[in-house]
């Protein structure tokens, strides 16, 4: 028998979908800023492996010569990014939702099993509650990364007034490197996230919009669950 | 009496109906809000450019946001917040020259005839020679100069504290105005600075770089070094100094950059 199982609270869904376009604008405008002094790359033994970013990439996305515009967008949307993130963190703390989010002792070991399972190396399905071990780690990490972007952003934005934040970030140079690296991290997170969501299917995806999943269950279990969750209508 | 009866007759929603109903509401809201976000984004992207004035070149709503954000972050400004300083050995030997606006486009300039003009009234000005400025107590600073483009360099500058300069020439009352404006002698490059940053203890009128008189390309004979601002505000070759309660013209603020550009 079909049953509605509540999964994601309204505020979680709201902040998730607000963050997506806001972060996209932050990355886009951040590229305008980065272009003006594109100092970073990855090189080993003096051989450049990756340069951030190749010319064709800049041209394809119309990045060059837009520093002022990039800063103007960046310093408006930083507010939305910060307020939205703060709202999520406050909600997660006060609702108790953090219990299902932050990694537990065994999560790090278990996340390995999730990875092996997802890569079709191991058949056994790892335990999955609202979030499995790998999700707990990934979703907690992404929140910490968001906080990191705000903190390093402030360090770069006002290195004199917030000299202590700048100091905490390891100085102006290091703050810029972290700020940049976190952004690369978001892009990688996004790519994996999209693949995982596609693989997880419609029911899972819908729950981040509608808040619930539809599950098949025995009537007996249903009765018990309804009492537990207190969501009987 | 009829209505309550009707309600009672109505069968409770089946699970399928509940699912459908909630899907409809949530997806409806999702697409409505999504559409609103797209429309809002299009509005911002297509927003008209601000009317060119003291500031220019930015979309009007973004300029409003820049100005509001400035007001918020100015609350954190303090003269006690000083830029980090370094030992002299850390200073760059080859100091970067990034822009020569107001210098390379001024062929008539003769350093020997230079005097700093300070506008003290509508028609009155004070003319101050470099020797008078060099006679004042010297301040040196080795700090990380930051460019709005993103690069930075540890540089060593020497000169007179701007606040010392102002009090020595009895300009304190004038300096109580909200802004100071600086211009190159040919007027091609100009900046506006709010009072707090002008009076910051690390703001100097520099005539030395790495212990030597500054070179033409670095702004000889006198330039501004203001560590609480991005490089764009550190005007080279000061020609005219003025004071006003409203924002003076600012070269880069006219090109879409934040007027404040404070660090």
From TrEMBL, chain A:
Which is a Pfam family this sequence falls into? Ni_hydr_CYTB
InterPro entries noted in UniProt: Cyt_b561_bac/Ni-Hgenase, Di-haem_cyt_TM, Hydrogenase_cytochrome
What range(s) does the Cytochrome b561 bacterial/Ni-hydrogenase domain occupy? Answer: 8-209
Instruction: Report the locations given in the UniProt record.
Output: Cell membrane
Annotated membrane topology is: Multi-pass membrane protein
Q: Which UniProt keywords are given for this protein, alphabetically ordered?
A: Cell membrane, Membrane, Transmembrane, Transmembrane helix
- TM stretches of this protein: 20-36, 42-61, 73-94, 137-157, 177-202
Please tell me whether the keyword Zinc-finger is annotated for this protein. no
Family annotation (PANTHER family): CYTOCHROME YDHU-RELATED, NI/FE-HYDROGENASE 1 B-TYPE CYTOCHROME SUBUNIT
Name of the featured protein: Cytochrome b/b6 domain-containing protein
Organism whose genome encodes this protein: Pedobacter rhodius
From TrEMBL, chain B:
Q: Quote the PANTHER family the UniProt record gives.
A: PROTEIN-METHIONINE-SULFOXIDE REDUCTASE (PTHR43032)
**InterPro entries for this protein:** OxRdtase_Mopterin-bd_dom, OxRdtase_Mopterin-bd_sf
Q: Where are the transmembrane segments?
A: 24-44
Q: What is this protein called?
A: Molybdopterin-dependent oxidoreductase
Say which domain of life the source belongs to: Bacteria
Keyword set for this entry?
Answer: Membrane, Transmembrane, Transmembrane helix
A Pfam family this chain is assigned to: Oxidored_molyb
SUPFAM superfamilies associated with the record: Oxidoreductase molybdopterin-binding domain
Q: Where is the Oxidoreductase molybdopterin-binding domain?
A: 109-252
